[in-house]
Amino acid sequence: MRVRATTTVAAVIGAVALSALAVPAAQAAPAGPAVTFSNVKVSSKTVVVGPTAKVTVSASYTVTKPANLSAASFDSGPILYRGSTLNVENRILAGDNPGTCTAASATVLKCTAKIQFRPARSGEYDDLINSDAGTWNIGALAINDSGYTAKGGFGTVKLLRASKLTADATPEPVKKGKTLTVTGKLSRANWDSNTYAGYSAQPVKLQFRKKGASAYTTVKTVKTSTTGALKTTVQATADGYFRYTFAGTSTTPAATAAGDFVDVR
């Protein structure tokens, strides 16, 4: 059940052979199936998506319906939405196909579904754009030829742009007491251009772990440039590893560079 993300209709396309529910803004949406939802859950509370690869997560939910309403007469599935209340006239995200339901009784259906996240814009679906990163609310939707029934308020999911971080300390080897330059770059997925791009003006910690030690300690905090680049200097004191680490933001997950070993002589 793919719901077109930026239009003002709840349109089911692809494998679901239903008409689009074009509802003028001044009119109420037509009533859908007489069902209610409960236990709507998405398997991942944080979904990290890179610049090109599709990410699929599983979901489960329960549908309660009248005994005389055929389960085959409507499609249903989980949806993600922005805002304090669910409104299908706003931007929402859903899966390509409706959920698969099994009757637990004459009135209760136990259902599973999948939600796909695509950073590459295919032209057929309105997929992820950079502004989609952040917190989404969880809801569910049932749809038939007459209209739709939707309910929200089942928790939240964080949708994040994947991040990468590098570190390189030079020169190697270096004499004790001399200056080391530690460069690196913080980048994150750009869903608009399907590439990784530098993440600017972000605080990143430079850390050091002495050879034989088990833990890193923070040396200083460095802010990324307009291109996401990092550069700072430190004094070479002992053999060990330098790395950068980024705590993450509301739209981007934390990242830590691999430690770069420096031989101090």
What are the SSEs and their pairings?
Elements: E1 2-3, E2 12-13, E3 36-42, E4 46-49, E5 55-64, E6 75-81, E7 92-94, E8 100-103, E9 108-117, E10 134-143, E11 148-151, E12 156-161, E13 163-170, E14 179-190, E15 195-198, E16 203-210, E17 217-223, E18 229-235, E19 240-246, E20 255-256, E21 260-262
Parallel strand pairs: 4-12
Antiparallel strand pairs: 1-2, 3-5, 5-9, 6-7, 6-10, 8-9, 10-11, 10-12, 13-14, 14-15, 14-18, 16-17, 16-19, 19-20, 19-21
Verbal overview:
There is one protein chain. The protein has 265 residues and is mostly beta strands. 0% of the residues lie in helices and 48% in strands. It is built from no helices and 21 strands. It has strands at residues 2-3, 12-13, 36-42, 46-49, 55-64, 75-81, 92-94, 100-103, 108-117, 134-143, 148-151, 156-161, 163-170, 179-190, 195-198, 203-210, 217-223, 229-235, 240-246, 255-256, 260-262. Strands 4, 6, 7, 10, 11 and 12 form a six-stranded mixed sheet that branches. It is elongated and about 85 Å long. It starts with a strand and ends with a strand.
State the main characteristics.
five-stranded antiparallel sheet; mainly beta; 265 residues; 0% helix; disordered N terminus
What is the average per-residue confidence, as pLDDT, rounded to a whole number?
88
Q: Strand content of the residues, in percent?
A: over 45%
Low-confidence stretches: 1-27
Distance between the termini: 63 Å
Tell me the overall shape.
elongated
Number of strands: 21
Gyration radius (Cα, Å) is 25 Å
Number of contiguous helices: 0
Write the element-wise H/E pattern from the N-terminal end onward. EEEEEEEEEEEEEEEEEEEEE
Structural class: mainly beta
Largest sheet: 6 strands, mixed
**Fraction of residues in H or I helices:** under 10%
